Amino acid sequence: MDATDVAAALLSAVLHAGWNAAVKASRDPPRAMTAQMLLGALFVLPGLLWSGLPPLAAWPWIAASTLMSVVTVSALLRAYELAGFGLVYPVARAIAVVLVVPLVAQFAGGWPGPAALVGIAIIAVSLAMLAWDTARDRGIPVRALAWILVAGLGAAGYILCDAQGVRAAGSPWAYGFVVSITNAAAMCWRQRHEGAPWMQLEGQWPIAVPAAPASLASYLLILWVWGHAPIAPAAALRDTSAVFAILIAVVWLKEPFTRTRILAVLLAAAAIPLLRLG
Fold this sequence. Notes:
- The chain is built from eleven helices and no strands.
- It is mainly alpha-helical.
């Protein structure tokens, strides 16, 4: 991975952390999530006129990614009802980081190099430390752990699908635009008990307007990286989003910056050069 890929993956992580934190902080996370996805789909519709549709070879990956995305989002929302953002988000991303490596090795051709494997392991440890720091003073419902596991499995699945799909499409823009639309459609179907799609936007504009472009930019950036760079190291870099989420909580929400959190941030920073070597 060159410096541009690393910077793009890290910017994707920052944006991903920001919009996820905004959705979790909303009064109604499922509606906020649906609203930002629906608004993002509306944003990309003009882009399809420029990019065109991806080739047929990418469509099985689009379908699989959409399914995995809905599973992941549904599991995250259920987990958020039972446990805090500081526990759910980093553990789900840590599970995804660990699972992506064997999945990529099995389906996308080969293991990362030794340096990248060490970097990925360090990222996973740093995310687990963040979750432990949040959970050590409170009980964790078993149901929350089950939903977190489902979210991590789903995230690993859609990472693999997107990485394969964007390469089959030959364009991060065509692939990303279509998946943004199919994800929004699937989420509206999931929330159909709340009414018609346009009703999902009612009262959600303050969150959806900034979150939708942040989510879209984060997704397109990582698709661009996955289109040519090693998948597992890039995915691990993107999942430092949990570290950025903690920094957001410390700076804007005035949460304490504990020793464990400081160490987790330093570990994640130390892993970046190793991932670049991968």
